[in-house]
Specification:
Elements lengths: L13 H5 L5 E6 L7 E6 L5 E6 L25
Antiparallel strand pairs: 1-2, 2-3
């Protein structure tokens, strides 16, 4: 029995990613140049999502992140 190949779906907005709240990263794979990254996410029910980032995404202008130790920094109030 052959496994059905799933079509890659484009990500258009934040809601496409928001649907994966609560998922955990279980694997990160890339090629020899550490590009064309594939991130495997799963939730508690065993549903798996694979996120594909091609080398054009890693140009320093497209993808950003920030991190903190305990709580996000407080936003100043006026």
């Amino acid at each position: 029995m052959r496994k059905k190949k799933l079509k890659k779906q484009p990500i258009y907005c934040g809601q496409d990613i928001r649907n994966w709240l609560g998922y955990r990263i279980i694997a990160v794979q890339s090629n020899k140049l550490d590009r064309n990254v594939r991130i495997k996410l799963t939730n508690d029910e065993g549903h798996i999502v694979k996120l594909f980032l091609n080398d054009l995404d890693f140009d320093g202008d497209s993808i950003f992140y920030t991190e903190w130790d305990s709580e996000p920094p407080a936003t100043p109030t006026r």
